[in-house]
UniProtKB/TrEMBL annotation:
InterPro entries: AMP-bd_C, AMP-bd_C_sf, AMP-binding_CS, AMP-dep_synth/lig_dom, ANL_N_sf
SUPFAM superfamilies xref list: Acetyl-CoA synthetase-like (SSF56801)
Protein name per the record: long-chain-fatty-acid--CoA ligase
Subcellular location: Cell membrane
Entry's EC annotation: 6.2.1.3
Organism of origin: Periophthalmus magnuspinnatus
Enzyme class: ligase
Lineage of origin: Eukaryota, Metazoa, Chordata, Craniata, Vertebrata
Length: 617
């Protein structure tokens, strides 16, 4: 009895200590957040408007010789980037006749030229549309046109993708420039020579005199239920809010920040690059993530802060172990989407690194930061966060794919510890701007009459859970989007491409879990045209030609008919649960074999090789 009482006592002490620890951590975080909120308020009231560009220019004056970015063995200082961006601005001003407000599409790989091109456009007061370098053909044209851009800037690496859509761009009188000294393709103008000859003198602020905190700064693309990427409108206010994530988690001007994520994504661009500009620190930019080079880069450049998505940490944990695994200066990692087991394995193997898991969406009005090192949580709620970003979890019918409403037509709040749909209240402090040239999809993300008649919330499309200690956990996505390789995949876009194959009549696309992998990999249940057999080679050709690698369905399931709901929506829940194990499915199954460049029958042998990771996905 005495031992039991002692156990209860010690358990109580531990709980009290944990609560005290979280209390002080909460207080420290809230104090830092208050200071950042005051700073944003100050920027809002500044006349003329004080933008991230102005902050960069001030930094270039304060520390002109400080390294701005390391890239593939070379480095550029703040002063050099300032001057190069001025040259880019002047060259574009002369060649493209750019004026304040003109939208320019950036279709470039990770490279310092991406950074000074953006800064050059900002000096002219021109919003930039950040095009995903994986998209092609129809998707590329859609992304370009929906933001209203009149100029496209690309590089030699992406020339073939631009050539494919060039006839349409010419018809629309679009100016296409390539960052090269020459180009043999008629209609694509080399810009590098013009940049070299341009003056690097500062440009007048009058060129961007009408830019305000509410003006559009960027268009960043996100997948959705339409089947084509949507251009999320990112205002200067949102740029400031996103780039302060680094400050919120304790990154300083002395840190060296490693960016291995694509700059066309909000994580790499806003949290990574823009955040480093706000902090005035030094960046190490990677063209693309490399697990084998990651820690060597960190040691070479004395990296102190790294950025990640769940997949990158998994790749690092799967890389061969070395005696030098803990020999680095990385003190903090920030990102999103890491599994609990990978999180634990990463810390055990690579040392005591402070993990700052984030949750948010490019276009969303609600985000979380796990500032406590609680493994598995994507954030923590405190009173200040709830005040600035009011939100709630509501009950959601997964089968019907809609919120559950009561007799009064209002949504039902999920209980503490219950999974619910996260919705963020739309207010002046937490607005939802929406998507460019897409009122329909903007309206679909708006949820009305949630807690009371007439209110308005942003529908994140994510199922979350908030536990008794106010920690937030991501559970799953809903609707017609799944996430693979750190990218959102729109199921209807994939379905549209599959049905262009000669033998396929209808396609129901969804994501399935694969043990040991983040997110869900693409799979499709299809029906065939009458009298047709599945044409493996033709289906492979269609998905490879028109879809980026992460969106290609790796598994095909042939069905006699596709199940639909009463409102003719395709049913996916049962298909997702059944997965792709041929031992449990009587329908013919196929696997996309990248070595054989075709779809092949999915056998038990192939299935086991996938599950044992002999076949890499």
């Amino acid at each position: 009895c005495g031992e039991a009482q002692d156990a209860v006592f010690f358990r109580s002490v531990v709980i009290v200590l944990l609560c005290c620890c979280c209390f002080f951590t909460d207080c420290a975080y809230m104090w830092r957040s208050i200071k950042l909120a005051i700073r944003i308020t100050k920027y809002k009231k500044c006349k003329p408007f004080y933008s991230l560009l102005d902050h960069f220019l001030d930094g270039a004056k304060r520390h002109p010789d400080k390294v701005f970015v390391h890239f593939e063995g070379r480095q550029c200082t703040y002063e050099e980037v300032d001057k190069q961006s001025a040259k880019v601005a002047r060259a574009l001003q002369a060649e493209a006749k750019l004026q304040e407000g003109d939208v320019v599409a950036i279709f470039l790989p990770n490279n310092p030229s991406y950074m000074w091109t953006f800064l050059g456009l900002a000096k002219l007061g021109c919003p930039a549309a950040l095009l995903n370098t994986n998209i092609r053909s129809k998707s590329l044209l859609h992304c370009f046109s929906c933001c209203g851009a009149k100029v496209l800037i690309t590089s030699p690496e992406l020339l073939s993708a631009v050539e494919e859509v060039l006839p349409t761009l010419k018809e629309q009188d679009i100016s296409v420039f390539i960052l090269a000294d020459s180009c043999s393709v008629p209609g694509i103008h080399p810009l590098s020579g013009k940049i070299k000859k341009a003056s690097d003198e500062p440009l007048s602020k009058e060129l961007r005199a009408n830019v305000t905190i509410r003006s559009t700064a960027l268009y960043i693309y996100t997948s959705g239920t339409t089947g084509l990427p949507k251009a999320a409108v990112v205002t200067h206010e949102r740029v400031w809010a996103a780039c302060l994530f680094q400050a919120a988690v304790g990154v300083t001007t002395d840190d060296i920040f490693y960016i291995n994520l694509p700059l066309y994504h909000s994580a790499g661009f806003l949290i990574g690059m823009a955040g480093s500009i706000e902090r005035g620190n030094t960046m190490v930019l990677k063209k693309k993530f490399s697990a084998s080079q990651f820690w060597d880069d960190c040691r070479k450049y004395n990296v102190t802060v790294m950025q990640y998505i769940g997949e990158t940490l998994r790749y690092l944990c799967n890389s061969p172990k070395k005696d030098t695994d803990k020999q680095h200066k990385v003190r903090l990692a920030m990102g999103n989407g890491v599994r609990t087991d990978i999180w634990t394995e990463f810390l055990n193997r690579f040392g005591d690194i402070q993990m700052r898991e984030l949750y948010g969406a490019t276009e969303g009005n609600i985000g979380f930061i796990n500032y406590t090192n609680k493994i598995g949580a994507v954030g923590r709620i405190n009173p200040l966060h709830k005040f600035f970003f009011p939100h709630t979890l509501i009950k959601f019918d997964v089968e019907k794919e809609e919120p559950i409403r009561n007799s009064e037509g209002l949504c039902v709040k999920a209980a503490r510890g219950e999974i619910g749909l996260l919705v963020g209240k739309v207010t002046k402090r937490s607005p939802f701007v929406g998507y460019a040239a897409n009122k329909t999809q903007t309206e679909k993300k708006r949820l009305r009459d949630v807690m009371k008649k007439g209110d308005l919330y942003f529908n994140t499309g994510d199922l979350m859970l908030i536990d008794s200690e106010n920690f937030v956990y991501f559970m799953d996505r809903v609707g017609d989007t799944f996430r693979w390789k750190g990218e959102n995949v729109a199921t209807s876009e994939v379905g549209d491409i599959l049905t262009t194959a000669n033998s396929i009549l209808e396609a129901n696309v969804y994501g399935v879990k694969v043990e040991g992998h983040e997110g869900r990999i693409g799979m499709a249940a299809v029906t065939l045209k009458e009298g047709e057999d599945f044409d493996c080679a033709d289906a492979y050709k269609q998905v490879v030609n028109y879809l980026p690698a992460y969106a290609r369905p790796r598994f095909i399931r042939i069905q006699p008919c596709l199940e639909v709901t009463g409102t003719f929506k395709m049913k996916k829940v049962k298909l997702v649960e059944e997965g792709f194990n041929p031992a449990n499915i009587s329908d013919p199954l196929y696997f996309l074999d990248t070595d054989k460049k075709t779809y092949v029958p999915l056998t038990e042998k192939i299935y086991n090789a996938i599950m044992s990771r002999e076949i890499k996905l």
